[in-house]
Amino acid sequence: MYFLVPEAPSAVKALVMSGESILISWKPPIQPNGVVSQYTVYIREDSEKAKEEEPKSQKVPPFQMSYEAAGLEKNEKYEFWVTASTNIGEGVPSRSVTLAPNTRG
Question: Burial, 46: exposed, middle or buried (Cβ in 10 Å; 0-12, 13-18, 19+)?
């Protein structure tokens, strides 16, 4: 018997909170394949140079379905995605969303 990691979190959204912060929210995976122990939010500048770098990541508790990324550069676009983890391991990444802090909408 083998164990599966969680599916990707669903309904990932990004919302501008201020000139330097973006709120990322999501719903739990449809198939968690166990008890979700944490979510990891990944943040990366959306540029060719940044795509070669490791994304920043922030772990959040399993009951928290959002994370506010603060201290962002105003005119930069950022890419965000989320994974769920169980005691088996980290699951599949969600689809990514891209947004700049000064963009409304």
Answer: middle
Q: Kindly state the helix (H) or strand (E) to which residue 84 belongs, with its residue range.
A: strand 78-85
Q: What is the pLDDT of residues 31-45, one digit of tens each?
A: 999 999 999 999 999
Backbone angles phi, psi at 25, to 5 degrees: -130, 160
Q: How far apart are CA 26 and CA 30, in angstroms?
A: 12
pTM for this one?
Answer: 0.92
Asked whether residue 4 is domain-assigned, the answer is no
Residues facing 38 on adjacent strands: 85
Query: Does residue 3 belong to any structural domain of this protein?
Result: no
Work out the mean pLDDT of the chain and round it to a whole number: 92
Of 29, 34, 30, 28, nearest to 2 by C-alpha is 34
In a domain, 55, yes or no: yes
Task: Quote the tokens at residue 47.
Answer: 């540029």
Is 2's pLDDT higher than 80? no
More confident residue, 55 or 47: 55
